[in-house]
Amino acid sequence: MKLSISSTTSRCIILPLLILYILLYPLLPAGSQFINKGGTVTVDPSPYFLLGSNLTVYCHVRECKRSYKISLDLNGVTVKDRKEVNCNLAKFYLPNVHMPQSFVVCKLRGVQSTKIVTGLDLHGGLPPDKPEDIICEVTRSSDFIGCLWKSGQKTYLPTTYNISVNRENGTQIYLDQIQNAEEIKIPRGIVDKTKKYQLIITAYNHFGVSQSNPFILCVKEIVIPETPHITNVEFENGSISAVLQWKTTDLSVHLKPYVRLCTYNSSWDVREETELSDTLIRVGDLTPLTEYEFQVRTCNSTFRVNHITVPSFTPGPTSSQRLPCSKWSSSVLARTPGKGPSQRLSVWRVFNSQQNVTVFWKPPPPQDYSGEVKQYNIFLASDQIKEVTCREASCHSSVLVPAAVQTLSISAVTSYGSSPPADVPLRHSGEVGPVLRQPAPAANGSAVYVSWSWPQTKSWSTSGGEVLLHYVVQWRSVPATKLWWQEVEKNQNSTSITGLTAGVRYNVSLFAVTTRGVTAPSSVLIYSKEQKPASGPNLTVLLHEAKRIQILWDELPVNQQRGFITSYTLYIQTLDSSNQALRGFPVEGS
Ligand SMILES: *[C@@H]1O[C@H](CO)[C@@H](O)[C@H](O)[C@H]1NC(C)=O
Ligand SMILES: *[C@@H]1O[C@H](CO)[C@@H](O)[C@H](O)[C@H]1NC(C)=O
Ligand SMILES: *[C@@H]1O[C@H](CO)[C@@H](O)[C@H](O)[C@H]1NC(C)=O
Ligand SMILES: *[C@@H]1O[C@H](CO)[C@@H](O)[C@H](O)[C@H]1NC(C)=O
Ligand SMILES: *[C@@H]1O[C@H](CO)[C@@H](O)[C@H](O)[C@H]1NC(C)=O
Ligand SMILES: *[C@@H]1O[C@H](CO)[C@@H](O)[C@H](O)[C@H]1NC(C)=O
Ligand SMILES: *[C@@H]1O[C@H](CO)[C@@H](O)[C@H](O)[C@H]1NC(C)=O
Ligand SMILES: *[C@@H]1O[C@H](CO)[C@@H](O)[C@H](O)[C@H]1NC(C)=O
Ligand SMILES: *[C@@H]1O[C@H](CO)[C@@H](O)[C@H](O)[C@H]1NC(C)=O
Ligand SMILES: *[C@@H]1O[C@H](CO)[C@@H](O)[C@H](O)[C@H]1NC(C)=O
Ligand SMILES: *[C@@H]1O[C@H](CO)[C@@H](O)[C@H](O)[C@H]1NC(C)=O
């Protein structure tokens, strides 16, 4: 017992030590801390270097140890290009250093162990670019003039900007300094609002100095409208547009508002939208169920500037070329509501009997609504509603329609609203409709092109108030199974019906739907592609006399014909001879 306890304790003491050692060791080179100052590292030309420079690093160790070799790690990788000057000093070449932040660690490598001598951080950088695109702006009520500029490419090192404001005769009246920034605020009180001043920005860092072109600062030319605020966002029902209410402390009479908006990931989209009133703007074309960020700014529409008549969102370099626009307001976040379907459904019907009607409809296109279709409502006579759920690409339901009822309608119900009801035409107009022409099968065997024309006598302009609404092309396989249909716009006179199966006979019918009702159909039987019959007909011998037999055969079932039968061939064989074809018959006989 005792032994086991003591052995656990000792393991517990040794373990943390080992872990500490392992943990500490690789951490040491990071930064410029080192365990014992066993020497120095120097860099030629300097640990602050221009990116892309060739550096020479000297590693100088205090104690000369024969069994150890001086080595250098750059960012954890041993430097190969090394020259030993003597046993205290080694020289390392680092060509073309492009890393802005690096560190070198000087080590003594022995056979048994490695000792860290010292380390050093290296800072690469670039001289500053000339500050460009200076803009200064002030609102009527502000105590500060805000100036912005573009600092150009990244320097990687602290870069200071001296901002000086000078009188026209060159006397400096103001100097301020800011580091790593692209904007500064200048007290308005230092300048006379009618006089012109020069603003000069000087950028400098370890590698150089760069001065901007002078910017002419004249307060009365840089006044911009006050920053407006969005006070309310409302979405209009159904249509995906928002109404923003905004306000400003300026007189808003001559201020034109602009809106910019973005969604979570996107960049700003600047829009000039419909103004509903002085303080209301409608923003259209939004996506349902999306979080938007809105901002508003105003531009002074009475302000006259040479050559520029519309606001420029990329202001020029001097104050006289910009249009006075306020800063963008702070953002307001709002989520658009869902959208109900806006288009009526495509509907059709087939009579099973005088009063029993199967109604067909297609689900609304997914881009027309958000959420899910919960159900379809079929509005029957006297406020009766039949609710149907359907998840198919084509839906149907049979309903009993009293003779007096002339239309019923169908609407899709989603979580965010219902589609406008689509009327199912029940009435027959009792008229002759357009006539289908001979259909043309497509080469791929799964589609047929159908076209039609109206009888010469039919003229729409003279048919007393009757209006053509659209056409319906309906097709179903023979023998009758499923029904398909397609609505065709009234200005069309042809369509392709697709998704057909080769070897299947279809009955294609065309109807015209008018305000008076549905015309009588024009029908045609088609194959998208004819195939060989699946079998031969069964035949029976009715009469067998000397030199004469009478035979009868059944017509093949349609699904075995797989094409239009054009002729039968009768084969006859005597028992003592080989097959002999007699002749072909036209299809009429059976
Ligand atoms: C760095 O040294 C290479 C040769 O090793 C030379 O070609 C190059 O010009 C040098 N680069 C600079 C910036 O001095
Ligand atoms: C920037 O301004 C400071 C005084 O605030 C001055 O000492 C320094 O020389 C200026 N630098 C340049 C590059 O003009
Ligand atoms: C520049 O003008 C100001 C006032 O207008 C004056 O006080 C100053 O002496 C002038 N400086 C020079 C160098 O002329
Ligand atoms: C919003 O709905 C109301 C009734 O609920 C309706 O009167 C109004 O026209 C609808 N507005 C829009 C823009 O659809
Ligand atoms: C944001 O963008 C990333 C990548 O571009 C994408 O994976 C992500 O789904 C987007 N998020 C939203 C909310 O659009
Ligand atoms: C708009 O510009 C005109 C002409 O410069 C100026 O008189 C007016 O005060 C400005 N309005 C605002 C709100 O800044
Ligand atoms: C209407 O006819 C269809 C097909 O013939 C049949 O399935 C359905 O039960 C009938 N509906 C009613 C309400 O009689
Ligand atoms: C067959 O051709 C028609 C018309 O050329 C086309 O609409 C249809 O998509 C095609 N079908 C296939 C499966 O390629
Ligand atoms: C179909 O309409 C086109 C013009 O849209 C016309 O040129 C063509 O003659 C029409 N065909 C028939 C069969 O009416
Ligand atoms: C084809 O369909 C029409 C319309 O439903 C129908 O009147 C006609 O009898 C059908 N023809 C055949 C051969 O089934
Ligand atoms: C021929 O007769 C057989 C047996 O009665 C029957 O199974 C088969 O379906 C018939 N074939 C055709 C094409 O009528």
Automatic annotation (TrEMBL):
Which CDD domains does the UniProt record give?
FN3 (cd00063)
Q: What is this protein called?
A: Interleukin-12 receptor subunit beta-2-like isoform X1
Cellular component, GO, one term: membrane
Membrane-related topology note: Single-pass type I membrane protein
Task: Cite the entry's keywords alphabetically.
Answer: Glycoprotein, Membrane, Receptor, Repeat, Signal, Transmembrane, Transmembrane helix
According to the entry, every stretch annotated as the Fibronectin type-III domain falls at: 224-318, 341-432, 433-534
Which stretches are transmembrane?
12-28
Localisation:
Membrane
| A Pfam family per the record | fn3
